[in-house]
Amino acid sequence: MFLIKPSPTFHETVATIKTFDLPNKQSQYHFMPDNHIDLTMNLGSPIKRSLIGSIRQITIETNEMIISSCRSKGMTLAGENIQMICAKIPAQFTGLFFSPGSCAERDQLIRFGRFPEIKNSDDFENHIKSWWQKLPHFEPDFILEEAIEMMKASNGKIKVKDVNDQLGISKSSLEQKFNREIGLTPKEFCKIEKLSHFLHSYIEHKDSLNLTQMTFLSGYYDQSHLIKEFRYFMDIQPKEFVQMAGLTF
Taking Cα atoms as reference points, which of 130, 109, 117 lies closest to residue 67? Predict the structure, then answer.
């Protein structure tokens, strides 16, 4: 399944690098899907990782690095001492790591092995920078990249039909590209973008706007619409999620 393709530079592909230090004993943390690939290094005790609605659970061992494709549902992490570093890579670069068509199986994951020499975020960043320098140039699929940019620019509010029309591509062709290269449908991608926009709006405006105002601001018909979408991806209501320490992802 793993395939290294010609690559763009580190700064072209790595959107952010973030450190998580959540040492509460036997805690569980919930994270939204965000239309990014996760390159994760576990510096703490073993972490149990599972996706909402799936019975599959994996353990990320101490000093282990993994990469996962764009998540189709929310994720929970549980452990005694969660310490990890995560690099976020935009969806259009999925082909750097996963062979064509493999993401159609959804929520793919690759284990890279253990790296005990990586002890902090600087070590992690230097390691993946040196890795990127060894790979030649790679260009994402133009249509896919343009569709993603349109969806992000609208905060997920754009209709997929409008994307098809503006790019001059049929509904089935665009769906095939998304399923094959990313592992999500265009509609799911938009829904995740919209939820992400809602959470950012909550963080920015929680002291000045109420939930109803933020619901409309994010493009939902009403609160029941928001709750329905939230429960699909996270299996909890927005209010429950907001009360957890998961707003940072």
Answer: 109
